[in-house]
Amino acid sequence: MSSNQANSIIVISNLRKTYQLGDVNVHALNDISIEIPSSQILFVMGPSGSGKTTLLNLIGGIDSLSEGSIRVCNEEISILSSKKLTKYRKKRLSFVFQFYSLIPTLTAVENVELTMELLKYNKKTLRKKALEYIELVGLEERSSNFPSQLSGGERQRVAIARALAKNPDILLVDEPTGQLDQITGEKIVSLICNIAKSHKKTVILVTHDEDLKKYADRIIKLRSGSIISDNLVL
């Protein structure tokens, strides 16, 4: 392992993902190699069908690779059993999706609490800690509201609070602005990146919106499953 790899939280080598649709093989990702340092905010950009979400799903262990290697925190995830993959996702990762996936019958703070309960947080401090995450995303005055009583941007803030409540090493963020207007979407991405920097989280954020790239440390662009550029943001 190179010294660069040793300092990287994620090392992806010669990654390929192929789907079979009838008699046709579709190459979603083609020979992808990336090293991602800890605490970096990486944006993955490109048109629809370029492989952005597939890459995120492979890193998240919710899809299986066809060839290559994905190492996260020095652990090769492609060889993990289903039980160990579940443990990996629980320990290392949190997801933020464009569809907020909140439970409609729970309030904002209860949605955050539910995640914390699954992680066996101390029940005596559960509400206090959940409210701290709600406050972190600026929703302390909306903590008792149900998702139907919140705007799209507020629901996405709850989803971010829920993701952060796991205290993950890595945040995987898939098109977080897809259901939001331009101004609200930019506020959400700014919030994610600012919190990630202050809490030293690694972020991999998928977006097609070129206006958001100013929030990234690094931008990888995909086209037809291949990397066409990989640049640090200066």
Q: Profile the largest sheet.
A: 6 strands, mixed
* Structural class by secondary-structure content: alpha/beta
Considering DSSP H and I runs of 4 or more, what fraction of the residues is helical?
A: 25-40%
Strand content: 25-35%
Indicate the CATH architecture: 3-Layer(aba) Sandwich
Q: What is the CATH class?
A: Alpha Beta
Query: Any low-confidence stretches, pLDDT <50, length ≥5?
Result: none
Question: Would you report the number of β strands?
Answer: 10
CATH topology: Rossmann fold
Domain count, please report it: 1
Please tell me what the overall shape is: globular
Strand order, largest beta sheet: 6-7-8-3-9-10
Rg, nearest Å: 18 Å
Looking at this structure, what is the CATH superfamily?
P-loop containing nucleotide triphosphate hydrolases
Order of helices and strands: HEEEHEEHEHHHEHEEE
Number of helical regions: 7
Distance N to C terminus = 28 Å
Report the mean per-residue pLDDT as an integer. Answer: 92
